[in-house]
Amino acid sequence: MTYLVAFLSSPASWAVYFSLGFIILHLVSVAIAASRCPLSRQPRQDSQPLVAAAPPISIVRPVCGIDNFVAETLASSFFLDYPNYEMIFCVASADDPAVELIQRLIASHPQIASKLLIGDDRISANPKLNNCVKGWKASCHEWIILADCNVLLPKDFLQRMLGAWRSDTGLVCSTPIGARPKGFFAELECAFLNTYQAKWQYVSEAIGLGFAQGKTMLWQRRILEQAGGIRALASEIAEDAAATKVVRSAGLHVQLVDHSFEQPLGRRKIKEVWARQVRWARLRRATFPVFFLPEVLAGSAFPVLAAAYAAFRADLNIIPIVFLFYGLWFAAEATLAYVAGWYVSVRMLLAQLLRDILLPILWIDCWLADDFVWRGNDMTVTPGTAAE
Asked: For the whole model, what pTM was predicted?
């Protein structure tokens, strides 16, 4: 009894509490995300009149270069089961290799009102936002969606976006879900995108701190125009961070669709995966520093170290404790992926383990510099400066 009392008041006991607390938090977060990815996707009760009304919608798709599956993702724009929408494709340069593909798609689907706009309106240091400006100005409708070219649009895309709109909504988004990976490093990107980033984005929304995701954003024109129009999104280096602040300053909320849209990945190199995660981390650190600070604890690395330390101090075998911890942690993630219909494989367990090992390194790395490269553009998160 004396030994037990001593242990419960020792640093080892606090390590146990820390580890158990994070396991519980992880399981709760998985349950929240799973509840938002049901197999049936009926519109919420207060959004059903909007879905039934089927208001005309403009879809603006910025395009830059030829990504994996880009022909398929862009072609999906023309097969939406919706009565009235227009497609506006935006390319910054006439020399972009995607121009010919877009022109061919438009010519092949004359039944859809669509056009290609070429040019670059430099309102910010963000090349994607600059590419979208002409599309926003040319759009005809009150409801406007900005959708990246590498997102696959399902036939009920517009119904699902409208179905997430509530009376207190200022913006509807969809976090990207990695799909169709080829090779281990693409599976690593799935591990980052799906059961880590998507999960925590659903949790943030559930506790009233929903934030925008630039992959897919549904705006009601008047909301952004009241904030100064699309130029308001140039107030931050990341347009989704600016969008979040615009919506919150209007006293409204960012909502997520109940079942996010896929981004087919194909083959990935580790350098590409790492560069993308570093870029996103540096943007989060620069735009929402208070919320970024606890990200160092978001994975399993520190909780499992705490569990191993507690086992060592209690003279228990560390190896089965670590295996039990990771078994519970990653079984919960696998369950979430299965329930949500996301990519699942045996090799994903190794990808998730590597992801959690990399998360603290990623967190440290993003503090060491402000610069990054996005689609060949040198950029920086430091306001008012340009990357060398």
From this structure: 0.91
